[in-house]
Amino acid sequence: MYHAFLSYSHRADALLAPVLQRALERLGTPFWRRAGIRVFRDDASLPASAALWPSIEAALEKSQHLVLLASPSSAESVWVDREVRWWLANRRPERLLIVVSAGEIAYDEVVRDFDWQRTNCLPPALRGVFTSEPHWTDLRFAQGPEHRTLRNSRFRSAALSVAAAIREMPKDDLESADILQYRRSVGLVTGGAVLVAVLGVATTVALFVARSQSESASSNRKDAESRRLAAAALVDLDQGRGVEAATLKATIAWRLAPTEEARRAIERIDATTPDIARILGQHTGVPSTLAFSRDGSRLASGARDGVVLQWSLADGRAWGAPLASERQFMRQLSFSADGTHVLVNGTRNDEPREPVVSVFRVADATRLPIGSAGLDLLRRAGARSDTICAAISPSGARLAVADGRALVVNDLARGAVKEHALPAKTRVVAIGFAGENRINFVVDDESGNGSRAGVADGAGGITLGSRGPQLGARCGFTSFSDDGAYLGVFGGARGLSLWNIGDGKLRPLPAPPGERAFELTGHYAPAWDASGRRVAYGVAGTGYVWDLASQRLVKTTKRFASGHGPPLALSPDGRLLAALDGDTPVVWTLDQQGDGQRLKSSRCGQSLDDACLQRLCERITSQRDERRWRELLGDEYPSLLAALKGTRCAER
Fold first, then answer.
1. pTM for the whole structure
2. Is there a domain that residue 376 lies in?
3. DSSP line for 61-88
4. Same-domain check for residues 131 and 23
């Protein structure tokens, strides 16, 4: 339970917020006791994403008051506005305390609302909320470190006002209690000194105190340096000076002292880039898709952190270097037919949720440059990021992306881009290579007059077949068998249907036992083996594998906690099935009894816990690259190197 939730913009109040938090917690509390109240403080500049908001919402749910650090930056913050809107929807406005750190605020008694022509520090969520002028605390004077301390009378008075409101007691009573505790502390120290003198051990005590003070001073210096480096890391990140420099500074900050500021800086870097997950070799986001290597010896997993990891099925351990793309929701993860390349297709987590299409060379974990020409063509054709289809050629040398009225093929070796014009008023719903220079695709008629399969050749020609049934599907919910003979369509009232491209017939797959056909919905496309004989799909947390030749249900998994899917993968030879049980991959050998092989959890806990941060610290600081550190740290390199002597990476 938290007595207050501190909502603020990191860009404006990164230095003020921690000082105010400590002041609110310590006022009226003896120095030898834990804080009298708990104040939750988080980074309001974190990008909004499905992976982050639940933890913030949980903290809001446990908080009794919301303290809004109002400033022009927080007024522009989507994150702050979202927190305030949640509060107003679930709590009383009287428990929202406004503390102005910058900008202007004015209330108009006539219109019974803030004067929004003059007020520039409040989020839009507060429009029309207060029908009488609320009390607010002014901290606009606290611009320097000399002002942000309880020794400053103005800061102390402002902090007392907010703390008294949180504790629901008169300000004078809280101030009296704080003064009383201070006097008691002084009395205890004085009494201790007298007792030491009486016992005749003044010299011993003096030496002990000196040593303690020295250790305390050293600890305080490390704490202060940790906080300074964490703030510098965020400045590097926000101003585009480089993720590597930001990560190094934040990690050194954690090694000097595992402060909350160092943790927040590392979490912020992780929420912005895939670098933390890549360095750790573990997912820091929720895994969302799986794929087998073409020889069936490895399983790859992709997550919202933008990283693809590979796991050896022989021993369940990590295999090879992580493949780092961009933070995204991965809808598609697949190997090229020869197993040399990996394709990732997804949507960025942050606004405006642009498409992310990446190709990796497995041998050296290199992300190949694909340029922006292909995606630019699709954007001009009206493509949305969640409907872009992507496929990789058998050798991994060519990438095809499509949607709207365009199909674009990118020659990765030469950097050449070829556009294939598609019929007007159609939308591509499936795409796949059938050979190095032949691309199978299916388009839906936007008027609902049916779907047509087609072929694009290397010369730029397009051949369309006769009309078939209207699929009403979209990329991410469809997949070709390797030979292009079948198309699996998942979603809508049909559930899972198989379209035989040769005869144009759409055959609904029988609903699994206990499920109705119109309930067969989910987030993931069917998974095929290489021969197109077996197909797997997930329904409401349960996985199913059908053998199309014998029309029999081969495998039914347990029902996982996920209400959708789960994401499934079939090995190319059709012998193995994989699914995600939370963060843990599970692999079954089909046609055999058993509970399946559980691999090591691919995720670094539910968040970046202390053990993960310790591993990150050790991997970055244990083997120092002197030349690179000098480049990244500049003039600070000698002093930071000296400060690190005698320190170690440790859990908090």
1. 0.63
2. no
3. HTBS-EEEEE-HHHHH-HHHHHHHHHHH
4. yes
